[in-house]
Write a structure and sequence with these properties.
By secondary structure, the protein is mainly alpha-helical. It has one domain. It is 68% helix and 3% strand. It has a two-stranded antiparallel ribbon with strand order 1-2. Strands 3-4 form a two-stranded antiparallel ribbon. A hairpin with a 2-residue loop joins strand 3 and strand 4. The termini are far apart.
């Protein structure tokens, strides 16, 4: 390599480091607001569906992102906001145990991230991958999405006193179609906000049909402190929710790998996956202590970083500060509550379906042979127990659905023996041509 080539390589390295270094500058305010705008649709959708305050979710997403940046020393340009993986358990738990008890389960879910970060710090990520391979996490993620399917269909089709079933399905279909077409055909910035476009399209169609009630907006104050709620310790709720944290924790590693490939920095090494998991866990536990949903890294924002080349992590600081500021606008939360249910139902059909596909894709990317007897046993058991709603109860204690299927999957993976049998040879094939079982 010539000296000129060496200098050129060194310059490229310096430019990369400079572009990804933390620089808090006033002129980046609009970039930060834009990043929040990208995350906004999904961010507020989770609390609305789960029965939480969207203004609290805004506040805790901003606060959680700031905490994440402190833990990771301001090195990773990601934004943390509401996690879709927890919608079903939050909804079920609130119905069964109440909001305050559910929040204690969400706080414990953040502790799971802490435990995983310590395991990785002491023994490396290989330990986690051994206990939680894709044949366990993949079907668990699928169970989360499949378990939400009845909710999405009900919201998209159920009639009320205000509208018929046909109107509900029509509005839901319009929202769904707008979301899908935006994701498939849009270019540039619009492609990053298909959820927001779908909500706006459904909302505009609902207006002339008289489905939007603006009276809560008129009654809401302009400025208002978010309705913070403190958790109360409740062991059954904790045992119900904690296993759910396994899947998004593993998905978090994938998100960090994605932003690493975008910026060219190895965040698994510096600041380290143990630090990013810790930051995510602290953000989740802190959110639960204020009444907000669990936080997770947002792939939508990673897409925006890719498009804009805005690698400076301080831009996410601006996004966090804007989120905290908006959380105190009472009328904003009231406007979000006016979104008709069928609009949300249409969006959720594709969103919850996407969760299922993500679980499937994680196994495909890992190269898993799902017809291998061992894998077949693990995946099928997880899916049937989770989707079927299998429950184990002992007094006040109950382990069911996602939580039960997650634990069973982990145990099966740890204790089922590895099979060395091979498929029988077919005519015209040599034994070496066949996949190993």
């Amino acid at each position: 390599m010539t000296k000129s080539q060496e200098r050129s390589s060194e310059e490229i390295v310096r430019e990369t480091i400079s572009a990804t270094a933390y620089k808090f500058r006033p002129q980046d305010f609009l970039l930060g607001a834009q990043m929040l705008f990208v995350a906004f649709g999904a961010l507020v959708l989770v609390p609305i569906l789960a029965g939480l305050d969207p203004n609290v979710a805004l506040f805790t997403s901003g606060l959680g992102t700031l905490c994440f940046q402190l833990v990771t020393r301001g090195k990773v340009p990601v934004y943390l906001a509401s996690s879709f993986a927890f919608i079903a358990p939050i909804t079920f738990s609130i119905d069964k145990y109440g909001l305050s008890a559910t929040l204690s389960g969400l706080a414990a879910a953040g502790v799971v991230y802490l435990v995983l970060s310590l395991i990785i710090f002491w023994g490396g990520s290989a330990i986690v991958m051994r206990v939680l391979p894709s044949v366990v996490t993949g079907p668990v993620i699928m169970v989360i999405g499949l378990g939400l399917a009845p909710t999405a269909v009900k919201m998209a089709s159920e009639a009320t006193e205000s509208y018929t079933e046909a109107i509900a399905i029509g509005i839901a279909a319009a929202s769904l179609l707008a979301t899908m077409l935006t994701a498939i055909l849009a270019r540039g910035f619009l492609r990053l906000i298909p959820i927001l476009i779908g909500i706006v399209a459904g909302y505009l169609i609902s207006l002339p049909l008289g489905l939007v009630n603006f009276s809560p907006v008129a009654q809401a104050p302009w400025l208002e402190i978010p309705s913070f709620t403190a958790p109360s310790f409740h062991l059954p709720a904790i045992l119900f929710i904690v296993p759910v944290a396994i899947a998004p924790a593993i998905e978090h590693i994938g998100d960090v790998l994605a932003i690493s490939s975008v910026t060219g920095n190895n965040y698994l090494r510096d600041p380290g996956i143990h630090r990013t998991l810790l930051g995510d866990g602290i953000a989740t536990t802190l959110a639960s202590f204020l009444g907000g949903p669990p936080n997770t890294t947002y792939s939508e924002v990673t897409g925006a970083v890719t498009l804009t080349k805005a690698f400076n992590p301080a831009i996410m600081t601006w996004a966090a500060l804007v989120a905290i500021l908006l959380s105190f606008f009472g009328k904003l939360g009231a406007v979000l509550q006016t979104i008709p249910v069928p609009v949300m139902g249409g969006i959720l059909i594709v969103l919850f379906g996407t969760i299922v596909v993500i679980g499937m894709n994680s196994m495909i990317q890992a190269g898993e042979d799902l017809l291998k007897p061992r894998n077949l046993a693990i995946v099928s058991t997880i899916l049937m127990l989770g989707v079927g709603g299998m429950s184990i109860k002992a007094g006040a204690f109950a382990l069911e659905g996602i939580g039960l299927s997650s634990i069973v999957g982990v145990l099966l993976n740890l204790f089922l023996p590895q099979s060395e049998t091979k498929l029988p040879k077919r005519d015209g094939e040599s034994q070496s041509d066949l996949p190993e079982q």
